[in-house]
Amino acid sequence: MATGMGTQTVLQVSGLSTIYPTPRGNVEAVRGVDLALDEGDVLAIVGESGCGKSACLLSIMRLVPHPGRVIAGSVMFQGRDLMKLGARDMREVRGRDIAMVFQDPMTTLNPAFRVGDQIAESLRVHGLLPGFPASLARRSRAREREMVTELMRQVGIPSPETRHLEYPHQFSGGMQQRILIAIALACKPRVLLADEPTTALDVTIQAQVLELMREINETTGTAIVLVTHDLAIAAEFCREVAVMYAGQIVEQGPIDAVLEDPVHPYTRGLLRSIPRLGERKPLTPIMGEVPDLAALGPGCSFAPRCEARRPCCDISQPELVAVDGRRLVRCHARRD
Amino acid sequence: MRALRDSPICLEGIEAIDEGRRAAPPWEAVRPEVVREARAARSGSVGGSGPLGLAQRNLLSFGRQMAGHPAAVVGGVVILLYVMAAAFAPWVVPCAPDEVALSQRLTAPSWTGAFPLGTDQLGRDILSRIIFGARVSILVGILTIAISVTVGVGLGVVAGYFRGPFDRLVSRFTDLLLAFPYLIFVIGAMAVMGPGFWNLIWALSFKGWVEFYRLARAEVMSEKTREYVEAARALGRSNAAIICGEILPNVVHSILVLGTLRMGNMIVLESSLSFLGLGIPPRTPAWGSMVNDGRRYMLTAWWVATLPGLALVVLVLAINLVGEALRDVLDPRLKEG
User: What is the pLDDT of residues A4-15, one digit of tens each?
Assistant: First the structure.
């Protein structure tokens, strides 16, 4: 997309749509999302709770929980459409080519196993370490410990030689998230999908974890998609940002352009509702409520809350079109 | 505590712990070099931090925690005595259990006499019959629980993980089984099949698995919503690997606790059936049928009915004490950090 680095595209998402059937009708969680991720890209997806950010990542991984399902779209990765892969081939891709980091490290680590074993397991799943019973051989155990401690060292866990024997509850939240990142990085994935990886952590730890992810991105070229509701994190960490609202991308472009000069009224509203240190102005929230995704009207889904609303907004969906050459905006009232 | 520490199973690991304790009391925090030294000292044993080393240490930590429950230690010793006596019954009994000595009928217990616990109405030695009766009770307990756990957990894990029509079908069937009172159900089954050891096992297991099914299903359903399962899927693990490698280890403790507690129930049920003459055939000594034999002599020869009953009470109590302690130790919510 707009990185201009001329590198090759690793992940190309087009027209991705996901629904969750409910008694009230189908909740359209993701509605025609297009994304392109180049090697080494860092893309943020921002938006309110329930706007489809996480559903979007889960759809890419084909992990949408039952009864939800992806109804349309393609995810091209290394010349293959992930949506058309068989279950076994898809398992091969998960973890090895595309890895995921989840929001709450405490519950994402299995409480019954030592962290070293959990890291080793991620290597075993994709054959980087021999599985049972070969894993019991003295030599493969030594190799396992070597690889595990090396990964733990890479993600900055002090004294990994001792700590790989500990259980998840013996680690702090930040250290747990580092272990999860170690697990995600074990197979050297091309793409890392991070679903609010710092939400459960306090601010200083957030910065450390983000710094770690940035380092990984710079040294290995792993492309990262970071889902967050925190614009400050997106601004700090990413080069490109996609703002989601009601399952659609409403504005996408280089982070500086979007944050300094937002075009879409929703992005403007989001920026106005962030408290700033030293400013004593009252915050301006976005009025109204997130629309019911099970009962969307024909018009723009942001129209009922929009300050720049026009008559046509209630009648037809705006398209995502290029504005000032650098970004895409989905709004009837955009400047061209 | 002492008794457990001196047992040969734990000795190896205890050395490592005691080595480590000088540096840091909680054994999880034992410095690795200390452990390595201790390990190196026992030549020929597993080195490194592989699965075997971990299993040993886990067992050890478990043993130490169980030792903190004196009642459980007593219960464990009692169970061990019963099992040993039952296993070596032909060698430890003073008389053959079916040796009839009509001249000695209804002899009172006496430590000095030939019959320490007295004789029954046919002059058979009660101690010998109790020891042989332990074989029946323990075997019934172990076999019924083994069958119930295998069937119940197997079906419950599949139903809880995949849900769908299979879950609905099996769950409705268990509802049906639960609608029958247990004892009436087993009495009916035994009346149809007739007394016999294996008939008894099948009759008890036929309904025994239901509780394990429900427990396993509920536990798997709640574990399945945890994020680590989603993370395992995102890592590319298959359903079978997730069930066996991620979920079962988090569920196994509650199954172990229920299994222990239910084993006591099964033994009581077996005795109830034998008491009614529906369980073990009369020639084989069983505690329930012994109590029934002694019923008529309750006022003149109390020991004939009371002592086998006491043997039953002590064994079931011991099993329940161990079960309670297992629950305390294995429940992760109560586990120390």
Answer: 445 688 999 999
Question: With 70 as the cut, is the pLDDT of residue A335 above it?
Answer: no
Supply the CATH number for residue A25's domain: 3.40.50.300
The two tokens of residue B66 are 């169980």
Q: Within this chain, do residues B187 and B294 fall inside the same structural domain, yes or no? A: yes
Boundaries of domain holding B42: 2-68
Query: What pLDDT, on the 0 to 100 scale, is given for residue B145?
Result: 96
Confirm if B228 and B222 have CB atoms less than 8 A apart.
no
Residues B23 and B120 placed together within one structural domain of the fold: no
- Mutation site for A-interface testing, chosen from B46, B228, B244, B336 by largest number of A Cβ within 10 Å: B228
Collapsing DSSP to helix, strand or coil, B228 comes out as: helix
Whether the per-residue pLDDT at B84 is higher than 90: the answer is yes
User: Do B180 and B291 sit in the same domain of this protein?
Assistant: yes
Report the residue of chain B nearest A122, measured CA to CA.
B235
- Give the whole-angstrom CA distance, residue A223 versus residue A39: 5
In chain B, the residue whose alpha carbon lies closest to the alpha carbon of A137 is B50
Mean pLDDT of chain B: 81
Range of the domain at A38: 1-86+240-299
Give me the CATH number covering residue B286. 1.10.3720.10
Q: Report the distance separating Cα B198 and Cα B144, nearest Å.
A: 10
CA distances from A130 to A144, A183, B50 (A): 9, 17, 13
Q: Is residue B315 part of a domain?
A: yes
Given CB atoms, is A177 within the 8 Å cutoff of chain B? no
Taking an 8 Å cut-off on Cβ atoms, the answer to whether B226 and A107 are in contact is yes
Q: Tell me if A173 is assigned to some domain.
A: no
Which chain B positions have a beta carbon within 8 Å of A161's beta carbon? 32
Cβ of A67: how many Cβ atoms within 10 Å? 9
Q: Per the CB < 8 Å rule, is B32 touching A93?
A: no
Q: Do B236 and A92 touch (CB under 8 A)?
A: yes
**pLDDT one-digit tens code per residue, A182-201:** 999 888 899 999 998 888 88
Q: Which of residues 33-92 of A touch B (CB under 8 A)?
A: 61, 63, 65, 91-92
Residue B78 has pLDDT above 50, yes or no: yes
